[in-house]
User: Which sequence fits this backbone?
């Protein structure tokens, strides 16, 4: 089968792409001629053909290496996915019908997801959302069949579904996974009754057929559903296997949710299609405290070559002491979803003695779109360059949000992306306004620059979304709650830097004349009215006057800078408390987007080395860059 199950042309050795010329020569073969699978089910079948008896999914109930795992071989996983597709077909699901999932990381979640894509359209949804948010997503998708856990102690998912069920006009069947009672058919019984060797529908899946909807755009706003074709998803599996050098039999510690493209595609489909083994770290994944606590024991037990997770998990892992475990199997680390602080990248690099590959992409690009190339120098802080057959540009936009030309080298502009992973548009056409800067070029909403080597650096955000541990928060609904409060004249919510989560929401308020400035009362009202706990601001700051643009809009960059100044001054408080006079100012920077400048006064040259080291130790874990000035 060769070194890459999804590539009909690669032989026994994967290319390294050590130069642009080597990459362009590789790309001279058109993408559709190179990739061997037309659908996600076919991609899984090709991975299974490498070694049908090898493990494809190893489920650890408690994220503990001493667990007795449930193991599905590649042949068993392919059979279950095929049976799931046939079960959904029996329930009346056709190519244009939607099967939604509200499941934690169970084995059924994985083969159910890809079975749904083979029968119709899969729609994995975050089960931790509030009931009304779930209802909005299920309604927007036009859900025909819903798969969720049955009633069980300690889970409120079933109760949520019962509350919103009357709103779901197109819903015909609720399928239960486990649980204690409840109406509707049992998933395992439905699946086990089906043939495992063929699709009974006789469907021939085309690459352009819709495979799935993924919700994005902030879980507190109107749901945006991204349409993925089978080609989008197969490309993601193919290119991730190529760039991360996934190999048959290799293991991956799997803890990302399946409603996130990083879990479903970058790690899930890639692993199954390349003949690897997804070691699932309990139904809660990395949210299970045991997963991080046992991380080195899990690596010693399952010997993964890649340690991949979101930056919050990578940072948490670096706090776990090594107690003699053998972690030498790890040859590279990777992370995405939000920026990896350089200090965390340096710690990973030193710990594993291996490169750290920061990836960048979005749901709209089917996940990974740029990555550091292993055949070239890896520069921490950069997200690398576009993966093969894809392109990235940094552009200027006109007043209508359209492409007004490329930025110069190191000039900051809006990041735009094109390629086989880029979606064709949102399900609701209203959301497509401004989604593309030009045909085929999606507007990322992020600011960045391309350096002289062609590496991309993300420098900020053009959109208002706050990213808390790779979780998108739309500030608008929170701001609307503040505006309804009788004491509030103007309000804005922005992200403040956080070592662990990347960003935390914080509110700024200009009070009405004569109104009281009671931050505790405002926070209490927000806790009551905000639909999810993660979106509740961690603080409220009152301003005499809200910073405004020339056209009267709130100038949010100034608020983000103020939030960063407050956080950094708090981080440096122990130094200031020793009598050292220092202050922090944050503002725009031509290369980094934003820069924190720490001004230190009255320290003689002989004492500066100690102070500089202490400042660096306290600020290095943050994503934002900093500099020291001596006054």
Assistant:
């Amino acid at each position: 089968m060769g070194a890459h199950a999804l590539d009909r042309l690669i032989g026994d050795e994967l290319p390294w792409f050590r130069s642009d010329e080597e990459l362009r020569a590789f790309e001279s073969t058109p993408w559709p001629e190179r990739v061997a699978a037309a659908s996600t089910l076919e991609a899984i079948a090709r991975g299974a053909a490498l070694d049908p008896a090898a493990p494809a999914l190893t489920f650890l109930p408690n994220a503990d290496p001493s667990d007795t795992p449930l193991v599905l071989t590649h042949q068993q996983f392919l059979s279950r996915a095929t049976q799931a597709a046939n079960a959904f077909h029996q329930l009346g699901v056709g190519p244009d019908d939607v099967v939604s999932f509200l499941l934690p990381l169970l084995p059924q979640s994985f083969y159910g997801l890809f079975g749904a894509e083979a029968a119709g359209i899969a729609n994995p949804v975050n089960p931790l959302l509030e009931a009304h948010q779930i209802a909005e997503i299920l309604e927007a998708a036009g859900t025909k069949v819903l798969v969720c856990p049955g009633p069980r102690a300690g889970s409120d998912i079933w109760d949520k579904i019962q509350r919103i069920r009357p709103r779901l006009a197109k819903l015909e069947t609720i399928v239960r996974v486990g649980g204690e009672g409840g109406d509707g058919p049992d998933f395992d019984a439905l699946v086990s009754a089906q043939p495992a060797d063929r699709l009974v529908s006789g469907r021939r899946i085309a690459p352009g057929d819709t495979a799935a909807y993924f919700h994005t755009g902030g879980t507190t706003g109107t749901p945006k559903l991204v349409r993925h074709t089978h080609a989008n998803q197969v490309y993601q599996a193919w290119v991730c296997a190529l760039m991360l050098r996934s190999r048959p039999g290799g293991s991956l510690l799997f803890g990302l949710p399946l409603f996130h493209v990083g879990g479903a595609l970058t790690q899930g489909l890639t692993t199954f299609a390349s003949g690897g083994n997804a070691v699932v770290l309990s139904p809660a994944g990395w949210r299970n405290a045991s997963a991080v606590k046992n991380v080195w024991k899990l690596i010693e037990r399952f010997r993964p070559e890649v340690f991949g997770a979101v930056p919050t998990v990578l940072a948490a892992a670096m706090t776990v002491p090594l107690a003699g475990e053998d972690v030498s199997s790890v040859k590279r680390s990777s992370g995405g979803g939000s920026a990896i602080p350089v200090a965390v990248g340096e710690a990973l690099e030193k710990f594993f003695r291996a490169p750290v590959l920061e990836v960048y992409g979005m749901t709209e690009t089917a996940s990974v779109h740029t990555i550091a190339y292993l055949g070239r120098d890896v520069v921490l802080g950069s997200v690398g360059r576009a993966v093969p057959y894809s392109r990235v540009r940094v552009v200027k936009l006109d007043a209508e949000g359209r492409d007004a030309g490329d930025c110069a080298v190191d000039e900051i502009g809006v990041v735009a992306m094109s390629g086989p992973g880029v979606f064709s548009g949102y399900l609701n056409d209203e959301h497509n306004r401004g989604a593309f800067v030009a045909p085929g070029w999606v507007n990322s909403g992020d600011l960045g620059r391309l350096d002289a080597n062609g590496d991309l650096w993300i420098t900020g955000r053009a959109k208002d979304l706050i990213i808390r541990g790779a979780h998108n928060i739309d500030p608008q609904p929170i701001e609307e709650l503040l505006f309804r409060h009788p004491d509030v004249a103007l309000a804005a919510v922005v992200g403040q830097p956080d070592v662990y989560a990347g960003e935390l929401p914080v509110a700024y308020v200009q009070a009405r004349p004569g109104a009281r400035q009671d931050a505790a009362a405002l926070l209490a009202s927000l806790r009551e009215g905000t639909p999810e706990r993660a979106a509740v601001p961690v603080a409220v700051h009152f301003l005499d006057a809200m910073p405004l643009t020339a056209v009267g809009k709130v100038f949010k960059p100034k608020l983000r800078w103020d939030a960063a100044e407050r956080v950094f001054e708090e981080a440096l408080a122990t130094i200031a408390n020793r009598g050292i006079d220092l202050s922090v100012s944050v503002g725009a920077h031509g290369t980094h987007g934003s820069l924190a400048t720490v001004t230190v006064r009255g320290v003689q040259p002989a004492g500066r080395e100690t102070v500089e080291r202490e400042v660096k130790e306290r600020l290095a874990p943050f994503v934002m860059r900093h500099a020291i000035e001596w006054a």
Observations:
- The chain has 19 helices and 30 strands.
- The two ends are 65 Å apart (CA to CA).
- The first strand starts at residue 55 and ends at 60.
